[in-house]
Design a protein that fits this description.
alpha/beta; 8 helices; 6 strands
Length: about 230
């Protein structure tokens, strides 16, 4: 939570991937706090640029961006990953985040303030063996890109962070065609013996954007119920 009451009232956040899961939960939570919420999906650089321009035209300023859009697309053993799956995983997870940051950063630089939070994953620490090396590699790129942007623009009043969740109860698993056996393996790896909830991640996004978190940048925050390290 912010340390200043009504901190988010009248401020604006752009949230990608807001149609479901963590993105949707974040949209609801920021709206609860009185923020203007611009919800969108990531498709192309042109679409992203137009969306950011419309948000600025409508609300005047955009203080926050949460790049939540991302997916493994489908599970695959490493030797079965084809060019299409690899390219699409990077287009959605890496290029989508890249486009959104490049679109909003000039505006944030003019204002001398801004917070960008990117969705990474515990997968980048584990490598995704046997099911999602393509996804883990893409999320590793998101973590590295977050670090670089954070350090490049830290003196300009801009913070950039990422979140690396463990398994969260969202449509992600079914969309990626995750088998019941793999879901159980994920669950067995969590000492709390449950998946995270989208709202638990979204509340963290709120904190990271708030004035209670002003000295934090460049980091990725792991939220995993104690699991996911081996």
């Amino acid at each position: 939570m912010p340390k200043t009451p009504d901190y988010f009232v009248g401020k604006t956040i752009i949230i990608t991937g807001a149609g479901s899961g963590i993105g949707r939960a974040a949209a609801m939570i920021f709206a609860r706090e009185g923020a203007n919420v611009v919800c969108t999906d990531v498709t192309s650089r042109k679409d992203v640029n137009e969306m950011v321009s419309r948000a600025i035209d409508t609300f005047g300023t955009v203080q926050f961006q949460f790049n939540s859009a991302g997916a493994a697309l489908r599970r695959s053993k490493f030797l079965d990953i084809d060019d299409a799956l690899f390219d699409n995983a990077f287009s959605l997870n890496v290029k989508g985040t890249f486009y959104c940051m490049q679109a909003i950063l000039p505006h944030m630089l003019r204002n001398g303030h801004g917070v960008i939070v990117n969705m990474a994953s515990m997968a980048h620490r584990r490598g995704g063996p046997g099911s999602s090396v393509h996804y883990a590699a893409a999320k590793g790129a998101v973590v590295s890109m977050t670090l670089g942007v954070a350090r490049e623009f830290a003196q300009n009043g801009i913070r950039c962070l990422s979140i690396s969740p463990g398994p969260v109860r969202t449509p992600f698993q079914s969309a990626a065609q995750t088998s019941p056996e793999l879901v159980q393996r994920f669950l067995d790896d969590v000492p709390m013996k449950r998946f995270g909830e989208p709202e638990e991640i979204a509340e963290l996004v709120l904190f990271m954007c708030s004035d209670a978190c002003a000295f934090m940048t460049a980091d990725t925050v792991y939220v995993n119920g104690g699991g996911g390290w081996r």
